[in-house]
Write a structure and sequence with these properties.
The complex is a heterodimer of chains A (about 100) and B (about 425). Chain A is built from five helices and no strands. By secondary structure, chain A is mostly helical. Chain A has a domain of about 50 residues: Orthogonal Bundle (Cytochrome Bc1 Complex, Chain D, domain 2), CATH 1.10.760. In chain B, a hairpin with a 4-residue loop joins strand 8 and strand 9. The chains are: A mainly alpha (about 100), B alpha/beta (about 425). Bound molecules: flavin-adenine dinucleotide. Flavin-adenine dinucleotide binds next to helix 2, helix 3, helix 9 and strand 24 of chain B.
């Protein structure tokens, strides 16, 4: 097997930066286990494309119990408000 | 130029990190190779996530099976509510994303040389290895129970032919028969699944063979979501499921496949259909790679899931000791995405961020009767522990509308999860 062609490698440095930027904040990677990128008969909403402030507001309402939930209340309680904001921003933009 | 010499490696909070020299980063990022062994919920997620996060990585997924057969919802296959085909997934989409698929078993790992040997004798070199091979049934742990016995007393704990065998046995049973299920001591794959199985079998019997019974021989005195299960059984299947806990002689000490008999501490139970869920351990390749310890499972640090025993090798999913996180498909998927991001960081010489993981597991006690157990986890004292105040189960006093809603979510999440991985 041929190892590490330098020309290719050097050209890829830029890619690594953008890849890092796409890394989800703590907790956010788990969301795509249930929240898909395509609507699945409306049972679980798609997050991508929804305004971050709206997602964060709903998460806070789940956390406080103001909004009734099945699993989301139990999940939201595991995150601080800044963590919720970071997750909301990421899920709104990048996915899931 | 030679890559990552030992002198350039140092250990950072238990993770081996390639030292941060600019050219070596470029090389590691550009052409680094990650091999993933096992294409289940953990490994297949990880391979795909690695390629998505860092398209320049060379990612190879080594999987022994041609297709994957998923265990979640396989209890519904046993109950005749679902087709096994609905559990099967191929690797085509993962390959189209640029992941190289090696469709064969990995037979050996050399962590010092950083190579994986494949069934055809070929060797793959890696910069980082991910092992996610799931479980092996421990054929030596329960006297009388070996691979041959499983043809008479199916385990159905790996979905496929065994699932169908148990279903056929149920279908062939006369009304008035006894279906016995024995459970292993923890840890084992999917803690609530034996009780879900008892429920699903009761659902089948209530509809088709109402004079029959389910006998649950348990090696424990309590089980996950116990109050939810027992309330569901009392309401949906009154008098049909008998649970025999450890303290009442439920612990099975040996079996006799010829007569389908379970021997317990004080008693003998002969069943018409006998489902033995035997003790389990990390799958063989984890042992031969030297990442499993005497418990039979693989200890890992809680940030990138790198082996405590072999630097450069990550273990995730059912095979790993993940602190408080249950051995579940949802957990394996969450761990795999965290691991992929951490590997991209490590290859770039960055310290991975401290992760937070969510596990959400649904149980179907009947097609329209679902409930769930949830946990949020973070690294604490060297392992993944639950974030206090979060997580827990569905309310025990929930009404039938809530149960129906959770059953609906269970199905939707299975579709989303398998779609993310294989779709
Ligand atoms: C009856 C039942 C019901 C369940 N229900 C649920 C549920 O509702 N929700 C939930 O979250 N979880 C559920 N689970 C648990 C879930 O199935 C497991 O936790 C999950 O499969 C673990 O994923 P994994 O990737 O670690 O291992 P696996 O899914 O077992 O995947 C391992 C893969 O590695 C491959 N492999 C092994 N060794 C090698 C080798 N040497 N070379 C190449 N390939 C190899 C195997 O072929 C396999 O494809 C259930 C389990 C059972 C038994």
């Amino acid at each position: 097997m041929s190892l590490w062609p330098m020309a290719v490698a050097a050209g890829l440095l830029a890619l690594s930066v953008s890849a890092d930027a796409a890394e989800p904040p703590p907790g956010a990677a788990s969301c795509s286990g249930c929240h898909g990128i395509l609507p699945t008969g409306a049972a679980v909403p798609v997050l991508r494309g929804r305004p971050a402030a709206e997602i964060a507001g709903i998460m806070r309402a789940f956390k406080s119990g103001a909004r009734p939930a099945t699993v989301m209340g139990r999940i939201a309680k595991g995150f601080s408000d800044p963590e919720i904001d970071a997750i909301a921003t990421w899920t709104s933009g990048h996915g899931p | 130029m030679s890559r990552g010499t030992p002198a350039r490696r140092r250990t950072l909070f238990g993770l081996t990190v390639a030292a941060a020299l600019a050219p070596s980063i470029a090389r590691a990022q550009g052409a680094a190779r990650v091999v993933v062994v096992g294409g289940g919920f953990g490994g297949a997620t990880c391979a795909r996530a690695l390629k998505k996060l860092q398209p320049a990585l060379g990612v190879t997924l080594v999987e022994a099976g041609k297709a994957y057969t998923a265990c979640p919802f396989s209890n519904e296959v046993i109950a005749g509510l679902r087709d096994l085909k609905q559990q099967e997934f191929g690797y085509g989409a993962i390959a189209r994303d640029g992941v190289a698929i090696a469709p064969m078993a990995a037979t050996a790992v050399d962590p010092a040389a950083k190579t994986v040997t494949l069934g055809d004798g070929a060797k793959l070199s890696y910069d980082r290895l991910v092992i996610a091979p799931g479980i092996d049934l421990d054929w030596k742990a329960l006297p009388g129970y070996d691979e041959k016995a499983a043809e008479k007393m199916p385990h159905a704990w790996k979905a496929g032919a065994q699932t169908l065998l148990l279903r056929r046995q149920l279908e062939a049973m006369e009304d008035g028969g006894v279906v016995a299920i024995s459970t292993p001591a923890a840890p084992y794959r999917c803690p609530p699944a034996p009780y879900e199985r008892a429920s699903q079998i009761a659902w089948y019997l209530r509809t088709k063979k109402p004079r029959s019974k389910v006998l649950l021989l348990d090696s424990k005195d309590s089980f996950p979501q116990q109050r939810l299960f027992q309330a569901a059984w009392a309401r949906l299947y009154p008098e049909m499921i008998e649970w025999v806990p450890l303290s009442q002689g439920g612990n099975v000490t040996s079996v006799d496949p010829a007569t389908r008999t379970f021997n317990t501490d004080f008693d003998k139970h002969t069943a018409d259909v006998a489902n033995v869920i035997p003790p389990q351990k990390a799958a063989a390749i984890a042992h031969s790679a030297g990442v499993a310890d005497r418990t039979g499972w693989c200890p890992v640090e809680p940030i990138a899931f790198e082996s405590i025993l072999q630097p450069g090798v990550h273990v995730l999913g059912d095979a790993a000791l993940m602190g408080a996180m249950p051995k579940a498909a949802f957990s394996a998927n969450a761990q795999a995405k965290v691991c992929a991001a951490a590997i991209v960081d490590l290859l770039a010489g960055h310290k991975p961020a401290e992760p937070r993981l969510i596990s959400a597991c649904y149980t179907l006690a009947a097609p329209d009767w679902g409930f769930s157990i949830v946990g949020v986890y973070r690294p604490e004292e060297g392992q993944l522990l639950e974030v206090p105040g979060a997580g827990g189960t569905s309310p025990v006093d929930g009404d039938s509308a809530l149960r129906a809603q959770e059953a609906h979510y269970a199905e939707a999440c299975f579709q989303t999860l398998t779609g993310e991985i294989f779709g």
